Amino acid sequence: EVIPAEISIDNKLDGFVQDGNGCLIISYVYTITYNGNQPAENVTATSRFTNFYTGKFSITTITNPDGKLALNPGFDGQNDINLFAGALVLPPETTSHIYVTVTLCGYDPDVDFVNFVDIKGETQAASSSSSSSSTSTTTRRTTTTTRTPAPVPTTTSTSPGTTTTTTTTTPPPVTTSTTTTTTTTTTTSAPVDSKEDLYDSDQVTFRLAVGGAPEEVEQPPIILDIGGGKDGS
């Protein structure tokens, strides 16, 4: 059974703390999984934060502990949203984690803080590895047949007097040749270079609340009670 290649990116809020200076330190972990049996090529990933907080947050750290992913040192989640330093190639059966720490200052209560991530790439389609060939064969051979004709008598008369001489002459052999040609032709079709697109996305939304019940939003938020220092869902 051929299992279709899939790629996924899981976005999880890993925790938060207040630094005592009116700023919130938020930790995310992105889990990237690729299950294909052929390498995934031209893989790119982005992480975008809500425009409501443009200029009020900064990326403190971005790490990939297992070193499987080449990260973009210029990633800031606003102007440069690329997580990777260029397009990557992921080997078959790859799982890796990216840890991102965000410092958010001057945040507004009851305003959602959204982090949207996505990943895309391509891989060779399962059917593209097949190829076909055909062979036709014709045989070439030569057959030689030799036939000896029957003797031919010759009579000679001599005068005066009557003298008759009979001589038998045998003609030379007759050779007949028959030729059959054999030709072998092999036709091979190369594998079809067909690509399969890969894509996935995920989103984490939380609301900074100071007391009171938060309003519901389309994306169910993770509620951070900045007064009590606990998170919930």
Would you give an account of this structure?
With 233 residues, the chain is mainly β. It has 2 domains: 7-125 and 192-232, Immunoglobulin-like; 133-189, no CATH class. Helices cover 0% and strands 57% of the residues. The strands form 5 sheets. The chain has a 6-stranded mixed beta sheet, with no helix packed on it. The protein is rod-shaped.
What's the arrangement of strands in the largest beta sheet? 5-3-7-14-15-16
Number of domains: 2
Quaternary assembly: single chain
Gyration radius, rounded: 43 Å
Largest sheet: 6 strands, mixed
Question: Order of SSEs, N→C?
Answer: EEEEEEEEEEEEEEEE
**Mean pLDDT across all amino acids:** 79
CATH superfamily of the largest domain: Immunoglobulins
Poorly predicted parts: 211-216, 229-233
Helix-strand blueprint:
Elements: E1 7-18, E2 23-34, E3 40-49, E4 57-63, E5 88-90, E6 94-105, E7 111-124, E8 132-137, E9 141-147, E10 152-158, E11 163-169, E12 174-180, E13 184-189, E14 195-209, E15 222-225, E16 230-232
Parallel strand pairs: 14-15
Antiparallel strand pairs: 1-2, 2-6, 3-5, 3-7, 4-6, 7-14, 8-13, 9-12, 10-11, 15-16
Keywords:
2 domains; 57% strand; six-stranded mixed sheet; four-stranded antiparallel sheet; 233 residues; 16 strands; Immunoglobulin-like; mainly beta
